[in-house]
């Protein structure tokens, strides 16, 4: 059995379903059984997620005020090394 935990900003039901399907497909492609794969999504509001002492709600608002794509602030948080994923212990 595989249990995959995902921490993301809030998403629509359709996007959550797509994420669950995609993760399950990756696990199956790597030897897990679909019926033994559990995906748990923890949705976190941008008001409850921060980096560098600043919430992503503020980062998104600043990006919007500066004419930047709001996704740039989110992408920075969720890109490898950007704080949106768990780092290996000791790493």
Structural commentary:
- With 91 residues, the chain is α+β, with helices and mostly antiparallel strands.
- The protein has one domain (2-78): 2-Layer Sandwich (Macrophage Migration Inhibitory Factor), CATH 3.30.429.
- 40% of the residues lie in helices and 22% in strands.
- It is built from three helices and four strands, in the order βαβββαα.
- The chain has helices spanning 13-29, 56-65, 70-78, and strands at residues 2-9, 37-44, 50-51, 54-55.
- Strands 1-2 form a two-stranded parallel sheet. A two-stranded antiparallel sheet has the order 3-4.
- α1 links the parallel β1 and β2 (37-44).
- The longest helix has 17 residues, at 13-29.
- The chain starts with a strand and ends in a 13-residue tail after the last helix.
| Second CATH tier, the architecture | 2-Layer Sandwich
> Structural class per helix/strand content?
alpha+beta
What amount of the residues lies in strands? 15-25%
**pLDDT averaged residue by residue:** 83
* Uncertain parts: 80-91
Strand and helix layout:
Blueprint: E1 2-9, H1 13-29, E2 37-44, E3 50-51, E4 54-55, H2 56-65, H3 70-78
Parallel strand pairs: 1-2
Antiparallel strand pairs: 3-4
Helix pairs in contact: 2-3
Give a quick precis of the structure.
The protein is 40% helix and 22% strand.
Keywords:
91 residues; 4 strands; two-stranded parallel ribbon; alpha+beta; 40% helix; two-stranded antiparallel ribbon; elongated; Macrophage Migration Inhibitory Factor; single chain
